[in-house]
Amino acid sequence: MKLRARVALIDIEGTVGSIAFVRDVLFPYAQERMDAYVNAHRDEPWMRAILDEAAREAGIDVHDLPAVLAALHTWARNDVKVTALKELQGHIWVEGFESSGIRGHLYDDAVAALHRFHDAGVALYIYSSGSIAAQKLLFAHTVAGDLLALFRGFYDTTIGGKRERASYDRILAQIGVPPGETVFFSDNAAELDAAHEAGIQTVQLARPQDGTVRSTAHAAIESFTGVEIAP
Question: Which of 34-48, 85-99, 156-170 has the lowest mean pLDDT?
Fold first, then answer.
């Protein structure tokens, strides 16, 4: 597949890395440590901001910590894309990556493609539901080493939901590149639909090992092998 674009906007889970790594390693790590971590930092301003946002999202009293924790655990079990949860998970994962030796899973074909696109002069940006802090943490501690230098920027749900066209309009406005000169890679058809509405080129990663359902509305590939982007 040969594409022409100046910018590649890239999802993480199911696209450059496996869904299983997030589901079976990162999520349980944060779940098991959430209560102790929150209690250890509950009086710090940054934690208070996360808990207050979670309470507002859940519609409960900001002073009812057990109820806030219960809501966070419920969202975590159901992988609900709530910004407060994603920020909290990111903080907990710092310990996992920096102290416990966790390394972020990336597919070999994705690592090769990221280097290939970067070397070709394509500006690489990540857009994931995980917090920006968690994204940077993962790419600084991958199985292929520290890849942070490959990326121009990172976006998370603070800019908007990934299934909303307006989010992609905002990203394009910040990057300053026309939609037709941008390509978005994701495994999720609804996200690709939203990006397409914004005029962005779209490619679905339909990896068999992740059980991705192939969409007929977007170009689909099983890996990044053979994908070339020319600015």
Answer: 85-99
Short-list 180, 118, 173, 130, CA closest to 155:
130
Within the chain, where are the H helices? 19-21, 27-41, 45-58, 65-77, 83-98, 108-119, 132-140, 165-175, 189-197
Q: How much is the pTM? A: 0.84
Residue 3 host element (H or E): strand 2-4
Structure tokens at 143: 């199985």
Domains of the chain are 2-18+105-230 (3.40.50.1000), 22-98 (1.10.720.60)
Strand partners, 104: 142
DSSP letters of 147-177?
Answer: -GGGEEEEE-GGG--TT-HHHHHHHHHHHT-
Q: Please choose, from the candidates 88, 94, 97, the residue with its C-alpha nearest in 3D space to the C-alpha of residue 47.
A: 88
